[in-house]
Design brief:
heterodimer, A: 225 residues
């Protein structure tokens, strides 16, 4: 049964319902849905209207596995470095359940946290033209537009930067996909049909985020305990 | 072509400002964008000398190059399983790290560390990650992680 919302409520619902989805069914993403995602991206704001975004749709399984391996390798290196310097343990200090802590460490240091992208029906590679002023911001706006449309369509997606954050891995991705020197590989969006609903992740209270007139003076009153 | 050289203070000042600009732009992500800084130097000075696939031999070669070129006074190292601990004494770029620390930014780029990473990755074909740069008593203590194998691109 379809639900009916006014435009404001529908917009906020889509924003609030967005999740980072890492488990996908085998069901392919339809061409019509893909068209909607790409049109949403195309309508994003960009500095000087440069529209520096370019997109590569990767469905080929062998290619997805290669990208997943690069992503997992990068995540594994970075999280292992965080683990051996004890910073990861500090980050998870409030997690009391030891079994859950160990599972989290294992998932992160092994790189499994990022290899899931090999199993997504589509990996949408977002590239950004370098010879413009605002590529990181422009492409991020396009990515968020895609993620919101993903949600509106009942699909699931995860914004994965793991294969692009370290220049060594980004070079591997660029070589794999023949991305020219004038463009950078910004991020990859893994897209498909989610296997299950996901709970929202916690958000910081808004009274901690917003100041009035200058930094430090809260705009909102502190929430009652 | 002029044979004039610049002072190390001038060079370090520029390196610091570039690194700080990178930090201001990318925060903690900056370290992952500078993992290949020193690559050209590696290609010209280090790579031609590498023949052995033993980590200790690789480190000795890098030590020799850095010392003979006057970039560091000494490099010491020890290996505990996959962890490689490297001490760098008398590095001409130490002032960069100190300037970063003065701004409460943990140092995130080290040329000797990058040369070690590039050399081990080249000769052993395994991933290596620089985990930490600590400045202790005027020397740098580097912690690197060596991984068993590269992820397989099936």
């Amino acid at each position: 049964m379809s639900e009916t919302y006014n435009l404001v409520d529908a917009t906020m619902k889509v924003i609030q319902d967005r999740r980072s989805i890492r488990d996908f069914t085998d069901e392919p993403v339809s061409d019509q849905d893909l068209d909607m995602l790409l049109e949403a991206a195309r309508q994003a704001p960009s500095g000087e209207n440069a529209q520096p975004w370019r997109f590569i749709i990767v469905k080929d399984e062998a290619m997805r596995k290669k990208m997943g391996a690069i992503a997992g390798g990068g995540s594994g290196r970075r999280f292992t470095a965080e683990f051996v310097t004890k910073k990861m343990q500090e980050r998870f200090a409030t997690l009391q359940d030891e079994a859950k802590r160990q599972a989290a460490f294992q998932k992160l240091t092994s790189g499994q946290v990022s290899t899931f992208m090999a199993d997504a029906p589509i990996n949408l590679v977002v590239c950004g033209k370098k010879d413009v002023w605002d590529t990181p911001y422009d492409t991020s706006a396009a990515i968020e537009n895609i993620l919101l449309m993903v949600t509106a369509l009942g699909l699931g997606a995860c914004w994965v930067i793991a294969p692009c954050i370290d220049i060594r891995d980004e070079e591997r991705i660029k070589a794999l996909l023949d991305i020219p020197e004038g463009y950078k590989a910004v991020s990859i969006l893994s897209i498909g049909h989610p296997t299950r609903p996901h709970k929202p992740r916690p958000r910081l209270p808004i009274n901690e985020l917003v100041f009035t007139e200058k930094w430090g003076d809260p705009y909102y009153e502190k929430e009652e305990a | 072509m002029s044979d004039k050289t610049v002072t190390i203070d001038y060079a370090n000042g520029l390196i610091y400002e570039l690194q700080k600009a990178f930090w201001d732009e990318r925060g903690k992500g900056a370290r992952f964008r500078t993992t290949k800084v020193g690559h050209q130097y590696f290609e010209e000075k280090v790579r031609p000398l590498l023949s052995s696939t033993e980590v200790t031999d690789i480190l000795e070669k890098i030590h020799g190059v850095l010392k003979s070129e006057g970039i560091v006074a000494e490099v010491s190292y020890s290996q505990e399983e996959r962890l490689l601990k490297v001490g760098v004494q008398g590095c001409i770029h130490r002032a960069v790290e100190e300037k970063m620390l003065a701004k409460e930014v943990e140092p995130f780029t080290c040329i000797p560390a990058n040369l070690i990473v590039l050399a081990i990755e080249e000769k052993l074909d395994i991933p290596v990650e620089l985990a930490e740069i600590k400045v202790v008593d005027g020397s740098c203590q580097l912690l690197l992680v060596m991984f068993e194998k590269r992820p397989v691109l099936e």
